[in-house]
Amino acid sequence: MTTYSTNFGSYTAAAQPSDWTARWVTSNVTWLATTLANTEGGKVLRRASTANANRLLTWDTVTAHADTELLARYKVSATSANHLYLHVRGSGAAAAETSYWVMVSTTGSMNLGKNVAGAQTTLGTTYTFTARPSGAWYLLRFRVNGTTLQARIWEDGTPEPTTWQITATDSAVSAAGWAGVGAYNSVGDIDFDYVAVGTAGDTAPLHTGTPTVSLSQAVMEVANSGTPSTTVSQLAVEVANSGTPSTVLSQLVIEVAVASVVATAQQPIVTIVC
């Protein structure tokens, strides 16, 4: 039982995240870490495409489990003809895709479904909601445990619903597989600024809800090797810690002793983003 989370702040800008892999149709699409202000980690994972196709980007760090919960915070730049997916138990190649999925239409509907060797089937009923203008952030939670699929969606800044808005039962896809984010339509960009995964029955952790604005509000004083020993004060540091849940250690105020500095550091501010 393990949880994973990332806000994409530690990835290299303008490059596909190093531990994520494009699956199925990989042409005419980019998945790039992109600098964006007022996001939790200062960057987003942006999908841009020039042709419609069934696409998936999987997080290689996540250990494959049959029972998986996936959470994403996202926004779209166009509200027409755009479908966003979360996939679990993924496998196969283009035209032979297999997975369970939740799909959100940017016009205000959500469905559960499956891919089996390239054949896509919707499961259960459709959940409808009032779609906000492009640029609104949403959170989407998708859980598959055994033969039960469940999902819920809510606008960022509002409470998470206490019940699942849509549920379905199916046994066609039982093997452990990939977990990741997906899309089909090529209209507009899709930005993910937080993705979390829970495996073997664990809940995918919520994001902290506190954006980091690329340290633009902080004062940084750096002690270089050639600088005389002085006091380092008001040090702002962003640390990516992959082994610690994102719900802890944010906005931690500590005193740091720097090796090249004799005097004690005075009131540095450290924001740790996991």
Number of domains: 2
Kindly report how far apart the N and C termini lie: 18 Å
Task: Tell me the CATH architecture of the largest domain.
Answer: Sandwich
How is the biggest beta sheet arranged? 8 strands, antiparallel
Figure out the total of helices.
Answer: 0
> What do the pLDDT scores average to?
81
Instruction: Give a count of the beta strands, DSSP E runs of length 2 or more.
Output: 18
Over all CA atoms, what is the radius of gyration? 20 Å
Summary of the model, kept short:
With 274 residues, the protein is mainly β. It folds into two domains: 3-199, Jelly Rolls (Sandwich), CATH 2.60.120; 215-274, no CATH class. It has no helices and 18 strands.
Q: How do the strands and helices of this protein lay out in sequence?
A:
Layout: E1 3-6, E2 20-24, E3 29-35, E4 43-49, E5 55-59, E6 68-76, E7 83-91, E8 98-105, E9 109-116, E10 119-128, E11 138-145, E12 148-155, E13 166-169, E14 178-183, E15 190-199, E16 236-240, E17 252-253, E18 269-273
Parallel strand pairs: 16-18
Antiparallel strand pairs: 1-15, 2-5, 3-4, 4-15, 5-14, 6-11, 6-15, 7-8, 7-14, 8-9, 9-10, 11-12, 12-13, 17-18
Give an account of the 3D structure.
It is globular and about 40 Å long. The chain contains no helices and 18 strands. It has strands at 3-6, 20-24, 29-35, 43-49, 55-59, 68-76, 83-91, 98-105, 109-116, 119-128, 138-145, 148-155, 166-169, 178-183, 190-199, 236-240, 252-253, 269-273. Strands 1, 3, 4, 6, 11, 12, 13 and 15 form an eight-stranded antiparallel sheet that branches. A seven-stranded antiparallel sheet has the order 2-5-14-7-8-9-10, with no helix packed on it. It is an all-beta fold and 274 residues long. Strand 7 and strand 8 form a beta hairpin. The protein has two domains: 3-199, Exo-inulinase, domain 1 (Jelly Rolls, Sandwich), CATH 2.60.120.560; 215-274, no CATH class. The two termini are 18 Å apart.
